[in-house]
Amino acid sequence: MRLNKIASFALSALLIGSVAVPATVSAKEDVKIEVTSDEKAFVKVEGTIDGMEKNDGLTLYTIKWKEESFVLAITKDTLIFDNTGKKVKMKKGDKVSAYTHAEKPMIMIYPPQYTPDVVIVENDEANTAIVGIFDDELVDPYLKLQLNVDDGADISSASGDKVKANDLKGKDLLVFYKEATRSIPAQTTPEKVVILDVNAVDEDATIEQMIEDDHYMVEGVKMVPLRLLAEKLGYVVDSTGVGAVVSKGAPSYTITRGQKEYGYNKSLLKFEAAPELLEPKKTYVPVEFIEEMMK
Question: What is the value of pTM for the model shown?
Protein backbone atom coordinates (compact mmCIF):
# COMPACT_ATOMS: atom_id res chain seq x y z
CA MET A 1 0.00 0.00 0.00
CA ARG A 2 1.27 3.41 -0.91
CA LEU A 3 0.13 4.89 2.39
CA ASN A 4 -0.88 8.55 2.15
CA LYS A 5 2.03 9.36 -0.11
CA ILE A 6 2.74 12.84 1.16
CA ALA A 7 6.22 13.99 0.23
CA SER A 8 7.74 17.34 0.92
CA PHE A 9 9.43 19.16 -1.92
CA ALA A 10 10.89 22.29 -0.40
CA LEU A 11 13.63 22.27 -3.01
CA SER A 12 16.79 24.07 -2.09
CA ALA A 13 20.11 24.56 -3.81
CA LEU A 14 21.05 21.21 -2.31
CA LEU A 15 18.43 19.48 -4.47
CA ILE A 16 18.27 21.39 -7.74
CA GLY A 17 21.27 22.32 -9.77
CA SER A 18 22.96 21.86 -13.09
CA VAL A 19 22.86 18.43 -14.69
CA ALA A 20 26.13 16.58 -14.61
CA VAL A 21 27.48 14.73 -17.64
CA PRO A 22 29.02 11.29 -17.10
CA ALA A 23 31.83 12.00 -19.53
CA THR A 24 34.70 9.97 -18.14
CA VAL A 25 35.70 6.40 -18.80
CA SER A 26 35.33 5.53 -15.13
CA ALA A 27 31.63 5.77 -14.32
CA LYS A 28 32.06 6.19 -10.61
CA GLU A 29 32.59 9.82 -9.74
CA ASP A 30 30.89 12.07 -7.23
CA VAL A 31 28.29 13.11 -9.79
CA LYS A 32 25.07 14.75 -8.64
CA ILE A 33 22.06 14.17 -10.89
CA GLU A 34 19.22 16.23 -9.52
CA VAL A 35 16.68 16.54 -12.33
CA THR A 36 16.59 13.94 -15.09
CA SER A 37 13.85 15.18 -17.42
CA ASP A 38 11.52 18.06 -18.12
CA GLU A 39 8.54 15.78 -18.66
CA LYS A 40 8.83 13.34 -15.78
CA ALA A 41 11.68 14.52 -13.59
CA PHE A 42 13.17 12.76 -10.63
CA VAL A 43 14.68 14.67 -7.75
CA LYS A 44 17.79 13.19 -6.21
CA VAL A 45 18.82 13.73 -2.60
CA GLU A 46 21.80 12.12 -0.95
CA GLY A 47 23.44 11.82 2.41
CA THR A 48 24.22 9.48 5.29
CA ILE A 49 21.61 7.71 7.40
CA ASP A 50 21.72 9.20 10.89
CA GLY A 51 18.70 7.53 12.47
CA MET A 52 15.44 5.66 11.85
CA GLU A 53 12.03 5.11 13.40
CA LYS A 54 8.78 3.30 12.60
CA ASN A 55 5.78 5.54 12.10
CA ASP A 56 2.27 4.54 10.99
CA GLY A 57 3.28 1.91 8.44
CA LEU A 58 6.36 3.82 7.29
CA THR A 59 10.00 3.61 8.23
CA LEU A 60 11.42 7.11 8.55
CA TYR A 61 15.16 7.51 7.95
CA THR A 62 16.86 10.75 8.96
CA ILE A 63 19.52 11.69 6.41
CA LYS A 64 22.40 14.11 6.93
CA TRP A 65 24.17 15.93 4.11
CA LYS A 66 26.70 18.57 5.15
CA GLU A 67 24.67 20.95 7.34
CA GLU A 68 21.31 19.80 5.98
CA SER A 69 18.87 17.17 7.23
CA PHE A 70 15.89 15.51 5.59
CA VAL A 71 13.74 12.42 6.02
CA LEU A 72 13.10 9.48 3.72
CA ALA A 73 9.70 7.86 4.25
CA ILE A 74 10.16 4.26 3.12
CA THR A 75 7.22 2.00 2.30
CA LYS A 76 7.06 -1.64 1.25
CA ASP A 77 6.95 -0.46 -2.38
CA THR A 78 10.22 1.51 -2.22
CA LEU A 79 12.92 -0.09 -4.36
CA ILE A 80 16.17 -0.39 -2.40
CA PHE A 81 19.37 -1.62 -4.06
CA ASP A 82 23.07 -1.15 -3.60
CA ASN A 83 24.87 0.31 -6.59
CA THR A 84 25.79 -3.16 -7.92
CA GLY A 85 22.10 -4.01 -8.35
CA LYS A 86 21.70 -6.20 -5.27
CA LYS A 87 18.63 -5.72 -3.08
CA VAL A 88 19.69 -4.61 0.39
CA LYS A 89 18.33 -3.18 3.62
CA MET A 90 19.17 0.32 4.80
CA LYS A 91 20.99 0.84 8.07
CA LYS A 92 22.51 3.64 10.08
CA GLY A 93 25.75 4.92 8.60
CA ASP A 94 24.88 4.00 5.00
CA LYS A 95 25.52 6.60 2.33
CA VAL A 96 22.39 6.70 0.17
CA SER A 97 20.97 8.41 -2.91
CA ALA A 98 17.18 8.66 -3.15
CA TYR A 99 15.17 9.39 -6.31
CA THR A 100 11.62 10.73 -6.17
CA HIS A 101 9.26 11.82 -8.93
CA ALA A 102 9.40 15.62 -8.83
CA GLU A 103 5.65 15.94 -9.37
CA LYS A 104 4.60 14.07 -6.26
CA PRO A 105 2.49 16.25 -3.95
CA MET A 106 4.26 18.34 -1.35
CA ILE A 107 3.68 19.83 2.05
CA MET A 108 5.84 22.47 3.68
CA ILE A 109 7.43 20.92 6.73
CA TYR A 110 10.90 20.89 8.22
CA PRO A 111 12.99 18.88 7.84
CA PRO A 112 11.85 18.05 4.28
CA GLN A 113 10.30 14.58 3.94
CA TYR A 114 10.49 12.52 0.74
CA THR A 115 8.74 9.31 -0.28
CA PRO A 116 11.29 8.04 -2.82
CA ASP A 117 10.62 5.62 -5.64
CA VAL A 118 14.20 4.30 -5.51
CA VAL A 119 16.97 4.36 -2.91
CA ILE A 120 20.54 3.37 -3.77
CA VAL A 121 22.95 2.38 -1.00
CA GLU A 122 26.30 3.65 -2.27
CA ASN A 123 28.73 0.98 -1.10
CA ASP A 124 30.78 0.08 -4.18
CA GLU A 125 33.25 2.53 -5.71
CA ALA A 126 33.42 0.70 -9.05
CA ASN A 127 29.72 0.79 -9.87
CA THR A 128 27.15 3.46 -10.62
CA ALA A 129 23.36 3.38 -10.36
CA ILE A 130 21.20 6.09 -11.93
CA VAL A 131 17.51 6.75 -12.52
CA GLY A 132 16.50 8.29 -15.82
CA ILE A 133 13.88 8.65 -18.52
CA PHE A 134 15.07 6.98 -21.70
CA ASP A 135 13.55 7.56 -25.13
CA ASP A 136 13.06 5.17 -28.05
CA GLU A 137 16.79 5.33 -28.77
CA LEU A 138 17.52 4.54 -25.10
CA VAL A 139 18.93 8.03 -24.60
CA ASP A 140 18.28 10.25 -21.60
CA PRO A 141 19.13 13.72 -22.97
CA TYR A 142 19.36 15.28 -19.52
CA LEU A 143 21.73 12.66 -18.20
CA LYS A 144 23.43 12.78 -21.62
CA LEU A 145 23.62 9.01 -21.48
CA GLN A 146 22.78 6.32 -24.04
CA LEU A 147 22.29 2.65 -23.19
CA ASN A 148 23.68 -0.12 -25.39
CA VAL A 149 21.86 -3.14 -24.01
CA ASP A 150 23.25 -6.55 -24.96
CA ASP A 151 22.01 -10.07 -24.33
CA GLY A 152 24.12 -10.36 -21.19
CA ALA A 153 22.26 -7.61 -19.33
CA ASP A 154 19.95 -8.47 -16.46
CA ILE A 155 16.67 -6.83 -17.53
CA SER A 156 13.48 -6.88 -15.45
CA SER A 157 10.58 -4.79 -14.25
CA ALA A 158 10.17 -3.51 -10.71
CA SER A 159 7.24 -5.88 -10.34
CA GLY A 160 9.61 -8.78 -11.04
CA ASP A 161 8.58 -9.62 -14.60
CA LYS A 162 11.23 -10.53 -17.14
CA VAL A 163 11.28 -8.13 -20.07
CA LYS A 164 13.18 -7.71 -23.32
CA ALA A 165 15.53 -4.93 -24.35
CA ASN A 166 12.86 -3.54 -26.70
CA ASP A 167 10.55 -3.04 -23.69
CA LEU A 168 12.95 -0.44 -22.24
CA LYS A 169 12.13 2.20 -24.85
CA GLY A 170 10.36 5.29 -23.55
CA LYS A 171 10.42 4.10 -19.94
CA ASP A 172 11.65 5.30 -16.56
CA LEU A 173 14.66 3.12 -15.85
CA LEU A 174 16.97 2.26 -13.00
CA VAL A 175 20.33 1.50 -14.60
CA PHE A 176 23.44 -0.13 -13.12
CA TYR A 177 26.73 0.18 -14.98
CA LYS A 178 30.51 0.39 -14.50
CA GLU A 179 31.98 2.37 -17.38
CA ALA A 180 30.85 5.00 -19.87
CA THR A 181 32.53 6.55 -22.90
CA ARG A 182 33.70 10.17 -23.06
CA SER A 183 31.33 10.94 -25.93
CA ILE A 184 28.23 13.13 -25.79
CA PRO A 185 25.95 11.47 -25.10
CA ALA A 186 28.09 9.15 -23.06
CA GLN A 187 27.43 5.51 -23.87
CA THR A 188 27.39 2.56 -21.56
CA THR A 189 26.57 -1.14 -21.66
CA PRO A 190 24.58 -1.65 -18.48
CA GLU A 191 24.88 -4.76 -16.36
CA LYS A 192 21.36 -4.47 -14.97
CA VAL A 193 18.25 -2.45 -15.93
CA VAL A 194 14.98 -2.23 -14.01
CA ILE A 195 11.82 -0.72 -15.51
CA LEU A 196 10.16 1.43 -12.86
CA ASP A 197 6.64 0.09 -13.21
CA VAL A 198 5.92 0.25 -9.49
CA ASN A 199 2.51 1.76 -10.25
CA ALA A 200 1.46 -1.07 -12.54
CA VAL A 201 -2.20 -1.95 -12.12
CA ASP A 202 -3.53 -5.38 -11.26
CA GLU A 203 -6.35 -5.87 -13.77
CA ASP A 204 -8.11 -8.26 -11.38
CA ALA A 205 -8.05 -5.78 -8.50
CA THR A 206 -11.33 -4.44 -7.17
CA ILE A 207 -12.15 -0.73 -7.08
CA GLU A 208 -11.54 -0.80 -3.33
CA GLN A 209 -8.13 -2.43 -3.78
CA MET A 210 -7.14 0.05 -6.47
CA ILE A 211 -8.06 2.96 -4.21
CA GLU A 212 -6.16 1.44 -1.30
CA ASP A 213 -3.05 0.90 -3.44
CA ASP A 214 -3.04 4.25 -5.24
CA HIS A 215 -4.11 7.38 -3.42
CA TYR A 216 -2.81 10.62 -1.99
CA MET A 217 -4.07 12.66 0.92
CA VAL A 218 -4.27 16.35 0.01
CA GLU A 219 -5.48 18.68 2.77
CA GLY A 220 -7.45 15.84 4.34
CA VAL A 221 -9.10 14.74 1.08
CA LYS A 222 -8.35 11.30 -0.37
CA MET A 223 -7.37 11.75 -4.02
CA VAL A 224 -7.55 8.76 -6.40
CA PRO A 225 -6.58 8.18 -10.06
CA LEU A 226 -9.37 9.25 -12.41
CA ARG A 227 -8.66 7.29 -15.59
CA LEU A 228 -7.80 3.95 -13.96
CA LEU A 229 -10.91 3.89 -11.82
CA ALA A 230 -13.30 5.40 -14.37
CA GLU A 231 -12.28 2.89 -17.04
CA LYS A 232 -12.58 0.08 -14.49
CA LEU A 233 -16.19 1.22 -14.02
CA GLY A 234 -16.82 1.12 -17.78
CA TYR A 235 -16.53 4.85 -18.49
CA VAL A 236 -14.70 6.36 -21.48
CA VAL A 237 -12.11 8.98 -20.55
CA ASP A 238 -11.15 11.53 -23.22
CA SER A 239 -8.35 13.95 -22.42
CA THR A 240 -8.93 17.65 -23.08
CA GLY A 241 -5.33 18.68 -22.39
CA VAL A 242 -6.34 20.45 -19.18
CA GLY A 243 -8.61 17.76 -17.82
CA ALA A 244 -10.99 15.14 -19.17
CA VAL A 245 -14.48 14.32 -20.35
CA VAL A 246 -15.74 11.16 -18.65
CA SER A 247 -18.79 9.50 -20.16
CA LYS A 248 -20.84 6.29 -20.22
CA GLY A 249 -23.92 6.69 -22.34
CA ALA A 250 -26.01 9.60 -21.06
CA PRO A 251 -23.93 10.53 -17.96
CA SER A 252 -21.10 12.88 -18.91
CA TYR A 253 -18.65 14.68 -16.64
CA THR A 254 -16.31 17.49 -17.69
CA ILE A 255 -13.35 17.94 -15.36
CA THR A 256 -10.63 20.60 -15.38
CA ARG A 257 -7.46 20.25 -13.34
CA GLY A 258 -7.06 22.99 -10.75
CA GLN A 259 -10.78 23.82 -10.72
CA LYS A 260 -13.24 22.62 -8.11
CA GLU A 261 -16.22 23.19 -10.40
CA TYR A 262 -17.04 20.42 -12.87
CA GLY A 263 -19.79 19.77 -15.35
CA TYR A 264 -22.35 16.98 -15.09
CA ASN A 265 -24.44 16.91 -18.25
CA LYS A 266 -25.80 20.49 -18.21
CA SER A 267 -25.32 21.04 -14.47
CA LEU A 268 -22.38 22.60 -12.65
CA LEU A 269 -21.22 20.77 -9.53
CA LYS A 270 -18.29 21.24 -7.16
CA PHE A 271 -15.49 19.01 -5.84
CA GLU A 272 -14.31 19.18 -2.25
CA ALA A 273 -10.77 19.50 -3.66
CA ALA A 274 -9.72 20.38 -7.20
CA PRO A 275 -8.45 17.59 -9.49
CA GLU A 276 -4.66 17.61 -9.62
CA LEU A 277 -1.86 16.14 -11.71
CA LEU A 278 -0.24 14.43 -8.72
CA GLU A 279 1.83 12.16 -10.92
CA PRO A 280 3.03 12.87 -14.45
CA LYS A 281 0.15 12.39 -16.93
CA LYS A 282 -2.06 11.04 -14.13
CA THR A 283 -4.97 13.13 -12.84
CA TYR A 284 -6.35 12.49 -9.34
CA VAL A 285 -9.83 13.40 -8.12
CA PRO A 286 -11.56 13.21 -4.72
CA VAL A 287 -12.66 9.64 -3.94
CA GLU A 288 -16.24 10.87 -3.50
CA PHE A 289 -16.38 11.47 -7.25
CA ILE A 290 -15.63 7.80 -7.94
CA GLU A 291 -18.23 6.79 -5.36
CA GLU A 292 -20.77 8.96 -7.20
CA MET A 293 -19.92 7.26 -10.49
CA MET A 294 -20.49 3.86 -8.90
CA LYS A 295 -24.13 4.65 -8.03
Answer: 0.59
